[in-house]
Task: inverse folding
């Protein structure tokens, strides 16, 4: 197969029409339906190309699977349009033109971009109101796209749709911050088809258009007229006239309900509802109407309503009106609808009759009880109800209609939407003209015959009649007739818009009403010649069902025209009512019957009762009724008739020629509306006067009248008449002699003969129109007389130029008269018809040059004139162009040099350059002239700055875009001075840099930015050789210019608009198709110039290290070719000065990576290119270079990790961010010594720790920096946090900040040594005793906080957790690593897990809390983690070994949970099997001991684990730890009660009860049964020492219980005496049981005679086994037993956990007190952060293992020691235990004592030798959790009974994990440590590998 390659211009795109899978074809690609592919090559049956969405997916695919887009190559299109079309992802749209396809392409891409934008907007601000609006606009655009691609659209409609689509796109892009699309005539343009300055102006215009909201009002304001389309549907519910089958007549109209004067806005249009249910103006037709010419004011009125007046047609008594009975029209009801509901409705399909309308229901209120008089009030009443929204649907019906709003001229709408204008559609006119009068309705030469408006409207409002002799009111009908002066009735009256003209109109009949209020409007249509002889007569008749005829009893009349020839005025008229005589009745009846009557006799009578004038009120034929009257309102809408007497006099000027001046003055007082409606007749009359010999003496007045009407055409309200007047000049003007007189009058005005300043201004305003009249008149005259007349015209023009030059020479100071110059330019197109262009240009140039330069205002007028001159036809003619160009150059150069009128200069220069750019191929001479003369002053002006600098920059860019190498050479040759050339080049470099740096172009003007950058690129290349020639060799070298040149290249490459990889695929390909990747081109220029600089000498050292950072910015751009080009520069720099360059690279990498530049691929490219360059190095630096590159690679990894964490928003605590900061801190301290960067990250880490509440860590962080300083006077420079100061001042500041941080972190022990050091400095070196005094006071305060008087202020130990991260999806510094994290005392495991889930939502927690996962999980791309609570193991300490008295536990306890590097975790298991009778025999513990890299707390509350060890605790060791812990707990409680005997005794009673009568786990007897038997001793002889220690613990336990009972008796209340007695009895029983197995056990008080303190286990001198103390999680079976708790003097025999919230709070407070005041390092009771829930016994079978039930350790509230007969004290303990993050214990409830608790063990201080250690099994209360602990303790003094007590060390235990994982996983059989075989007395020996019990998880109830 032969593949044919397609060129870029012929490249095609295809749309996949079905799915294709490549299968075994390796070169093929998969296609899905609608995938867009770009076809690069083709062969028979196959195409080769790539996916438009992902260019990386390329290959071959079958040609049958894609539809190739067809592009009409015959259409001339720009390269930009072809690219836009090629790279747009659209489906085939056959039948569209190329331009229309571009619109569809753009629309499709816009919708995709909008979808991404609103998605991001929803994520960031879901409540933004713009979101819903853009969603609606997207739906509209989709519908418009569907309509636009329809094949049946006309070209006019498609053009309108195209405009609407592009407007919506531009507006939406602006609101969403997307790119602005430049357009010319609605089509988008690219950078290659238009000049830069024109593109700049287009962006400015687009920006002004898209600013603001596209509201409905904004759309309406773009049109002059609006039209309401009405389609009547039904009445709901169907309404019929009551008591009859008559018809209904529904009159629709638009009504303005103004409380002052409500009135109709439009004509009425009637729809009949026939008896058979049909509707329409005729039976069987659908009724539609169009209310036309509504104004913007009508639409904005809140009081505009569509009303429907409903009448019934039939007899007066609702009988049927056929069979010869007269049909009357009677009121029935009224319906209203606010027009605002129609205006604000959204129409989904605005061009379809079925879709553009919306259904509405008009509220209809009928008349009640035949009260016709109410009809006049129904409308007002209903409108008020609608306004107040108090419509009752039960009482009101509805008129159902469909309404739609159309905008624009009715003729255009009729042409675009012919389907709306059927034969049945009734056009309903507005009562009056629109605000902006359509010219075609007034000009007779363009009007069609039916469009001429000559309408007279009469509103028959109301009447008042007397009852007279009648017993009841009349049924009055008004009949309206138009009668001429001969008495003939004319058929010209229409009752509504649908009626044909008739001779009369009969009103509705109000039944029995002498005050009818009809409010009906009729239209009278007469010609303009009929009005003066006609009048309106209204006859009043009485109607009756009994009489066949209507009886005439009165009439009124009103003439249509007055005696002055004006039409009757528009107002409400109160007409006289006349009673005719019998003779007159016969005359009137004869006239009504059609017989020819005589001239009416009543015309001599007065018709208006308010202004009767000189007419009489009665005659022999008629008498006036004084108490009766008729009210009518008249409105005239005519383009021929007028109501202004002055205008009538003007048209009849020949009748009063002597007073022509007065007539001409009066006509100038006519209103503009009236005058412009008659402008054609007015102008004809004026020019008739001009040519009339009788009016020759009145020419100045005639000229003023002409100026008056022409001035109106320039006003805003009448601007639409301007083209009509121009059309009048072209077609209707026919006065060939007028030009002479007009020139004479203009010259007279210019000479100032009449000294009329106002006239001069008006002449200037209409100067162009005057000259058009002159030119047209001269042209008409020249056709008749050739040579002579042309010579006279030239002479007249010469006189005109002379007068004009004289005017501009002697102009006023303000230069206002100079505006006439700009008006002259407007008539150049007309003057060129008679004058040659060079002559005209010369005359005008002379006129411009005579303008004086003494005033800046004169220059403004000259520049405005030049602006029009550039765009005039003179610039298009070659003969006149040089004259114009010379004039423009001189003026622009003058202004640039003097810095005046720069805004106008910029506009003129932009117009000039745009004109030259369009014809740059034919105007090379003009282009060279402009560039060579203006580029230097233009550059100087831009650098000096001005308000128009942006437009001036556009002009400069346009000049540069037209400049090639030859033109640039000519520019340099034009400037012969070398210094001038250097300054020009330097200025250009500076300007181009400022364009980029100062963002002169908005970022969303992407097309303009790309064009500007292409010009900057070409100009930079042109300047390269100039830089070498003028700034390099010898003394010409200029470091500043070269540096600016390099920085220009760097800033150019780093522009955001050039980073193609950040754009969408289609946008990236479009930009690439224009100019390619300009960054690469500029990178090559930069590299070549750097190499050129190197070849000319040792100039590179000048730019090192200052240019390292800029070049590094370029190298970090993610473009592979650019990187490969620039990176070798760094090798050369390193060879020149290794140390400086390496340090600068490190500094800049830190800065740039943190700012977001660079990625990991840069590390690979950097390493590769540098090592390639170093491979051929022979200088011996290869090893040094390799080490440096590796360090930089490591730094890039660390910086990238830091940036990722810095930008991540998931972690609220920022733990990983602080960890990555620490990695950078270590790198700058240990790997590469960069003190400034080290200090920077010390401050960052300090701030991060402080921000998130880790004040202790912040103190340690700052201490790193403080430790590097000394107490010297050396001056230090300013850094990020401190000003310039002496070294001791900075260290002092650091110390004070560190002390504050330690104070906030409650680590006062660390702050005190700093206070001491600082005190010594104050005292011995600076002798500042004031500061010393304050510091010592502060130190005293810290000491008080360590031992506070208030127990609530005491500290709690911190919680420590092991967290392990597995999987490759975690950050690199976390992958497959484990850490110890320090949390506060109240942060449980749930808090840690919750924080991890927020930081890593996709991570999964592993079920095993400590076991290392399998290798697959370690290497997978998933995220797994483990969380488990661990206990700190501070180990033995000699800090308090020399204490002479016991140290307060509040002092020693701090060192148990601070400065710790060892942590433990225990897992409990039973081996070989679980002994359910006595679990103590088989309970073992697997202990994990973890060592961290740094002690905690430190500069982070995280620390990596560097080593983990395991060991197993035997059952006796476990029991010893439990019993020791219980002794310590009881001892602490007794100390507390001894200190404060007023404490609540409930806890004391419960503890004693639970220990003495332990029914849950059996207590001491169970331990004795397990370990005291001879069988156990025989089986485990190696445990003899442990067994002795355990017995000693039991003896101490009994003694402590004895002391507790003694204390309870002493302080117990009377109501507790029964309980005390019962406990004493139980204690005797327990003692007897103990003595049975331990004969050496005696009850001895442990009160020391000498010290007065309770002795503890740690006082013994037994040898410890040397085990490290730790916390233990025990897993023991649930035993069925009962616990007895005392509350309110009663005992609870039910087992269970305490859940009372009140008691929980009490115990929590007690815990705070005891934990802070304990004098023995016993295990602190700790409860999880979830409420404890009762645990019920659930034993399904003997084989099922039960979960462990752990009862809470009851804390005791302790006070300070007080004097008493028995005093308690504790020995000192070893320091180092962490106490910050422990949760409070749960409060016990009355339900029971079984609750899950947590405890921690305190270490006691020991003075034993390291080899003398022992492990004790210490029994616990039945419900208390069993753990193993190791406690270092001193020798126990001899008790009073001289019983030998051996020494022991007891290990502390590990608290269990949080509630959800309370039971640790059971050790699997393959993981269980091998234990020595031994025999347990009560448990038979099992097989070698007994099964391990399954693990169960305890879930507390919520």
Result:
């Amino acid at each position: 197969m032969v593949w044919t390659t397609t060129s870029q211009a012929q490249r095609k795109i295809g749309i996949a029409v079905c799915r294709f899978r490549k299968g075994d074809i390796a070169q093929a690609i998969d296609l899905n339906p609608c995938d867009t592919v770009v076809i690069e090559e083709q062969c028979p049956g196959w195409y080769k190309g790539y996916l438009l969405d992902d260019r990386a997916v390329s290959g071959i695919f079958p040609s049958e699977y894609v539809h190739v887009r067809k592009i009409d190559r015959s259409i001339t299109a720009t390269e930009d349009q072809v690219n836009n079309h090629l790279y747009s992802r659209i489906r085939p749209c056959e039948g569209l033109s190329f331009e229309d396809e571009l619109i569809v392409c753009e629309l499709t891409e816009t919708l995709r971009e909008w979808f991404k934008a609103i998605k991001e907007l929803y994520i960031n601000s879901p409540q933004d109101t713009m979101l819903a609006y853009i969603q609606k606009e997207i739906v509209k655009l989709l519908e418009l796209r569907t309509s636009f691609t329809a094949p049946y659209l006309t070209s006019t409609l498609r053009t309108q749709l195209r405009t609407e689509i592009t407007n919506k796109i531009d507006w939406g892009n602006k609101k969403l911050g997307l790119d602005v699309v430049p357009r010319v005539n609605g089509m988008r343009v690219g950078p290659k088809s238009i000049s830069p300055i024109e593109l700049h102006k287009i962006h400015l215009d687009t920006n002004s258009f898209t600013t603001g909201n596209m509201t409905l009002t904004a759309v309406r304001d773009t049109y002059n007229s609006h039209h309401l389309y009405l389609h009547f549907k039904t009445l709901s519910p169907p309404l019929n006239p009551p008591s009859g089958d008559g018809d209904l007549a529904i009159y629709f109209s638009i009504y303005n309900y103004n409380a002052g004067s409500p009135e109709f806005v439009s004509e009425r249009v009637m729809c009949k509802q026939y008896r058979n249910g049909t509707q329409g103006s005729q039976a069987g037709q659908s009724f539609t109407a169009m209310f036309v010419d509504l104004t913007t004011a009508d639409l904005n009125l809140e009081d505009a309503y569509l009303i429907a007046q409903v009448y019934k047609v039939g007899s007066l008594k609702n009988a049927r009106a056929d069979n010869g009975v007269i049909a009357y029209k009677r009121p029935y009801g009224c319906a209203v609808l606010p027009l605002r509901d129609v205006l604000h409705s959204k129409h989904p399909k605005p061009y379809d009759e079925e879709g553009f309308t919306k259904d509405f229901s008009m509220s209809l209120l009928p008349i009640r009880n035949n009260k016709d008089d109410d009809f006049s009030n129904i409308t007002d009443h209903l409108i008020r109800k609608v306004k107040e929204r108090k419509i009752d649907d039960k009482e009101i019906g509805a008129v159902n209609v469909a309404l739609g709003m159309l905008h624009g001229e009715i003729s255009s709408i009729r042409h675009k939407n012919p389907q709306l204008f059927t034969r049945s559609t009734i056009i309903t006119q507005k009562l009056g003209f629109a605000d902006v009068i359509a010219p075609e309705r007034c000009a007779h030469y363009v009007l069609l015959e039916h469009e001429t408006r000559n309408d007279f409207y009469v509103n028959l409002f109301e009447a008042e009649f007397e009852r007279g002799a009648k017993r009841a009111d009349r049924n009055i009908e008004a009949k309206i007739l138009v009668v001429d002066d001969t008495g003939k009735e004319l058929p010209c009256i229409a009752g509504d818009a649908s009626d044909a003209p008739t001779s009369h109109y009969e009103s509705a009949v109000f039944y029995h009403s002498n005050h009818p209020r009809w409010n009906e409007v009729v239209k009278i249509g007469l010609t303009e010649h009929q009005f003066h002889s006609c009048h309106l007569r209204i006859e009043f008749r009485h109607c009756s069902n009994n009489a066949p005829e209507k009886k005439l009893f009165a009439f009124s009349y009103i003439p249509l025209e007055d005696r002055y020839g004006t039409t009757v005025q528009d107002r409400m008229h109160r007409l006289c009512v006349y009673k005719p005589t019998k003779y007159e009745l016969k005359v009137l009846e004869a006239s009504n019957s059609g017989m020819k009557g005589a001239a009416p006799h009543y015309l001599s009578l007065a018709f208006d009762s308010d202004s009767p004038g000189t007419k009489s009120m009665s005659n022999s034929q008629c008498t006036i009724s004084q108490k009766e009257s008729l009210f009518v309102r008249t409105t005239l809408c005519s383009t021929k008739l007028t109501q202004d007497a002055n205008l009538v006099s003007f048209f009849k000027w020949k009748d009063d020629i002597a007073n022509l001046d007065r007539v001409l003055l009066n006509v100038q007082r006519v209103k503009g509306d009236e005058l412009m409606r008659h402008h054609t007749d007015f102008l004809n009359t004026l020019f008739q006067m001009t040519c009339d010999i009788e009016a020759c003496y009145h020419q100045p007045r005639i000229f003023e009248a002409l100026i008056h009407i022409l001035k109106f055409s320039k006003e805003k309200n009448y601007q639409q008449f301007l083209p009509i007047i121009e059309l009048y000049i072209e077609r209707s003007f026919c006065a060939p002699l007028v030009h002479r007189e007009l020139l004479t009058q203009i010259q007279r005005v210019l000479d100032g003969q009449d000294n009329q300043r106002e006239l001069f201004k008006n002449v200037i305003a209409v100067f162009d129109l005057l000259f058009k009249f002159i030119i047209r008149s001269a042209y008409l005259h020249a056709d008749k007389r050739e040579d002579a007349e042309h010579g006279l015209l030239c002479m007249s023009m010469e006189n005109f130029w002379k007068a004009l030059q004289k005017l501009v020479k002697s102009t006023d100071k303000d230069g206002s008269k100079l505006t006439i110059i700009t008006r002259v330019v407007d008539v150049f197109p007309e003057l060129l018809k008679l004058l040659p262009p060079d002559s005209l240009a010369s005359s005008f140039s002379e006129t411009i040059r005579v303008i004086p330069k003494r005033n800046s205002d004169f220059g403004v007028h000259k520049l405005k004139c030049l602006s029009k001159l550039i765009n005039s036809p003179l610039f298009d003619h070659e003969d006149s162009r040089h004259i114009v160009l010379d004039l423009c150059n001189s003026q622009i150069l003058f202004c640039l040099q003097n810095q005046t009128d720069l805004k106008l200069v910029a506009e003129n220069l932009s117009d000039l350059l745009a004109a030259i750019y369009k014809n740059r191929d034919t105007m090379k001479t003009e282009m060279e002239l402009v560039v060579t003369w203006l580029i230097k002053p233009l550059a100087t002006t831009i650098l000096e700055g001005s308000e128009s600098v942006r437009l001036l920059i556009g002009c400069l860019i346009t000049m540069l875009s037209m400049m090639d190498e030859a033109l640039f050479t000519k520019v340099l040759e034009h400037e012969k001075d070398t210094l001038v050339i250097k300054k020009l080049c330097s200025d250009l470099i500076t300007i181009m840099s400022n364009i980029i740096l100062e963002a002169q172009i908005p970022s969303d003007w992407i097309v303009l930015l790309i064009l500007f950058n292409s010009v900057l690129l070409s100009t930079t290349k042109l300047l390269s050789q100039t830089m070498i020639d003028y700034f390099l060799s010898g003394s010409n070298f200029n470091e500043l210019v070269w540096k600016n040149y390099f920085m220009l290249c760097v800033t150019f490459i780093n522009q955001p608009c050039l980073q193609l990889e950040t754009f969408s695929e289609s946008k990236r390909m479009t930009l690439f198709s224009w100019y390619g990747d300009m960054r690469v081109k500029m990178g090559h220029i930069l590299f070549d110039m750097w190499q050129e600089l190197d070849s000319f000498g040792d100039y590179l050292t000048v730019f090192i290290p200052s240019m390292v950072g800029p070049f590094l910015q370029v190298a970090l751009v993610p473009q592979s070719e650019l990187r490969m080009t620039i990176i070798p520069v760094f090798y050369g720099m390193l060879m020149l000065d290794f140390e400086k360059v390496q340090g600068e690279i490190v500094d800049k990498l830190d800065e740039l990576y943190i700012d977001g530049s660079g990625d990991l691929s840069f590390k690979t490219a950097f390493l590769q290119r540098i090592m390639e360059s170093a491979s051929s190095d022979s200088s011996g630096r290869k090893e040094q270079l390799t080490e440096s590159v590796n360090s930089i690679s490591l730094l890039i990894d660390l910086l990238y990790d830091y940036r990722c964490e810095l930008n991540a928003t998931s972690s609220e605590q920022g733990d990983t961010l602080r960890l990555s900061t620490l990695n950078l801190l270590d790198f700058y301290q240990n790997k590469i010594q960069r003190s400034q960067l080290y200090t920077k990250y010390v401050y960052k880490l300090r701030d991060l720790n402080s921000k998130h509440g880790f004040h202790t860590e912040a103190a340690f962080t700052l201490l790193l920096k403080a430790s590097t300083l000394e107490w010297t006077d050396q001056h230090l420079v300013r850094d990020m946090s401190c000003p310039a100061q002496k070294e001791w001042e900075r260290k002092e500041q650091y110390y004070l900040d560190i002390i504050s941080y330690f104070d906030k972190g409650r680590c006062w022990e660390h702050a005190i040594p700093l206070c001491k050091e600082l005190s010594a400095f104050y005292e011995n070196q600076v002798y500042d005793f004031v500061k010393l005094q304050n510091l010592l006071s502060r130190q005293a305060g810290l000491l008080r906080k360590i031992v506070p008087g208030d127990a609530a202020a005491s500290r709690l130990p911190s919680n420590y957790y092991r967290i392990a991260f597995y999987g490759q999806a975690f950050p690199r510094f976390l992958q497959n690593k484990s850490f110890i994290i320090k949390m506060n005392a109240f942060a449980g495991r749930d808090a840690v897990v919750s924080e991890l889930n927020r930081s890593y939502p996709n991570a999964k927690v592993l079920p095993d809390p400590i076991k290392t996962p399998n290798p697959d999980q370690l290497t997978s791309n998933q995220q797994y983690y483990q969380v488990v609570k661990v206990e700190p193991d501070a180990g033995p300490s000699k800090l308090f070994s020399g204490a002479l008295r016991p140290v307060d536990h509040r002092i020693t306890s701090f060192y148990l949970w601070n400065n710790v590097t060892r942590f433990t975790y225990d897992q409990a298991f039973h081996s070989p099997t679980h002994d359910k009778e006595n679990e103590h025999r088989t309970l073992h513990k697997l202990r994990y001991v973890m060592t961290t890299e740094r002690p905690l707390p430190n500069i982070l509350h995280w620390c990596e684990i560097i080593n983990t060890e395991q060991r197993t605790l035997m059952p006796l060791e476990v029991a010893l730890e439990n019993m020791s812990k219980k002794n310590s707990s009881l001892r602490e409680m007794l100390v507390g009660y001894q200190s404060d005997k007023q404490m609540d005794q409930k806890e004391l009673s419960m503890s004693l009860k639970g220990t003495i009568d332990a029914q849950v786990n059996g207590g001491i007897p169970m331990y004795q049964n397990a370990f005291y038997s001879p069988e156990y001793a025989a089986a485990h002889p190696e445990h003899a020492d442990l067994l002795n220690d355990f017995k000693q613990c039991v003896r101490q336990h009994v003694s402590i219980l004895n002391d507790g009972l003694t204390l309870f008796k002493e302080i117990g209340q009377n109501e507790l005496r029964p309980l005390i007695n019962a406990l004493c009895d139980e204690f005797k029983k327990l003692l007897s049981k103990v003595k049975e197995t331990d004969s050496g056990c005696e009850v001895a008080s442990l009160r020391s005679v000498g010290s007065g303190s309770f002795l503890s286990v740690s006082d013994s001198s037994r040898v410890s086994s040397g085990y490290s103390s730790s916390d233990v999680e025990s897993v023991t079976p649930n035993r069925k037993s009962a616990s007895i708790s005392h509350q309110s003097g009663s005992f609870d025999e039910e087992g269970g956990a305490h859940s009372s919230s009140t008691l929980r709070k009490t115990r929590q407070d007690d815990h705070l007190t005891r934990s802070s005041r304990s004098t023995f390092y016993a295990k602190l009771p700790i409860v999880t952060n979830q409420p404890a829930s009762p645990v019920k016994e659930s034993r399904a079978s003997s084989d099922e293992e039960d979960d462990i039930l752990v009862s809470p350790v009851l804390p005791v509230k302790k006070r300070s020691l007080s004097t008493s007969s028995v005093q308690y004290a504790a020995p000192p303990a070893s320091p180092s235990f962490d106490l910050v993050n422990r949760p409070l214990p749960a409060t016990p409830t009355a339900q029971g004592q079984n609750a899950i608790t947590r405890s921690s063990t305190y270490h006691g201080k020991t003075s034993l030798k390291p080899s003398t250690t022992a492990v004790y099994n210490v029994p616990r209360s039945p419900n208390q959790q069993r753990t193993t602990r190791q406690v270092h303790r001193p020798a126990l003094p001899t008790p009073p009974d001289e019983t030998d007590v051996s020494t022991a060390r007891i290990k502390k235990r590990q608290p269990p994990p949080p509630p959800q994982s309370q039971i640790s996983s059971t050790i699997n059989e393959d993981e269980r440590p091998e234990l020595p075989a031994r025999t347990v007395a009560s448990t038979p020996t099992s097989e070698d590998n007994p099964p391990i019990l399954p693990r169960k998880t305890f879930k507390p109830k919520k």
